[in-house]
Amino acid sequence: MAGSAARLFRSLVVPVALLLVWEGISLAGWVTPLILPSPTAVAARWWAYLTPMEPFEATAGPWWRWALSGELPSDVFTSLMRIAVGFAIGAGLALPLGLLMGARPLVHELFNPLLQVLRPIPPIAYIPLAILWFGLGNPPAFFLISLGAFFPVLMNTIAGVRAVDAIYLRAARNLGAGEWTLFWRVMIPAAMPYILTGIRVGVGVAFIVVIVAEMIAVNTGLGYRILEAREYFWSDKVIAGMITIGLCGLGIDLGMSRLTGRLLRWHRGVEG
């Protein structure tokens, strides 16, 4: 218990120190609040962004509608929904293709040249085509997110299958395992650390891409809300949205880390 408290304290020292310095700069008036609002102003705006309007507030003047929007839960849900759908599409295509390319040299020779040409192209470069092909709304966002998730999952899956120790394969064959059993019971479990790493990286890339897509192709979500706040010079709301993105990303990464640790308890590189 004492060790956990000490680790928590050490992890909070730098963030708290930065917040205090930031608040001091704001109180001293060295920077205009329009450019850099104080942490307390950002916290107040974040709470207003989170809190839904009460019935009597909804009938008040425009200031109440501006102050207590209650948009944050809806924006977070919308962005996470887009990430989930886009990632499912991208990873759902990358996993089987990566397994085949890693296990079958012929499949690798057929697909690798095309994939190596497409892989360096960032998903953001596809935005004009995505809008031309799918219009505005969720479809172009799904397309861009799936692109962002596809290549990390694909390349790590290929690397994982190719890194399977030949001793495992020879031992399985000596025990009478067929090709199908060898693939499902030996190669995939042995490649799982690589695959889960690719999934973790792919989720992170998908989170980045969804914010960019929401700034351009849709009118809901965290990315859209940040862009909207910029148009009105609401710096506190921009920062509040950025902090929300960071917290969501941290939560997703911690969840993926716990899932990886649970699924790979058998692996010698992961402590139980």
Fold and architecture overview:
The chain contains twelve helices and no strands. It starts with a helix and ends in a 9-residue tail after the last helix. The chain folds into two domains: 66 residues, no CATH class; 192 residues, MetI-like fold (Orthogonal Bundle), CATH 1.10.3720. Helix content is 79%, strand content 0%. With 272 residues, it is mostly helical.
Describe the secondary structure blueprint for this structure:
Blueprint: H1 2-28, H2 39-50, H3 55-58, H4 62-67, H5 72-103, H6 105-118, H7 127-134, H8 138-162, H9 166-174, H10 179-216, H11 222-231, H12 235-263
CATH topology of the largest domain: MetI-like fold
What is the helical fraction, as a range of percent? over 70%
Order of helices and strands: HHHHHHHHHHHH
What is the count of helical runs? Answer: 12
Structural class: mainly alpha
For the secondary structure, the number of strands is 0
The CATH superfamily of the largest domain is identified as MetI-like
CATH-derived architecture of the largest domain: Orthogonal Bundle
**Low-confidence region ranges:** 54-68
Report the mean per-residue pLDDT as an integer: 81
Text of the CATH class of the largest domain: Mainly Alpha
What would the principal axes of the Cα set say about the shape? globular
Q: Strand content of the residues, in percent? A: under 5%
Rg over CA atoms, rounded to whole Å, is 24 Å
Q: How many separate domains make up the residues?
A: 2
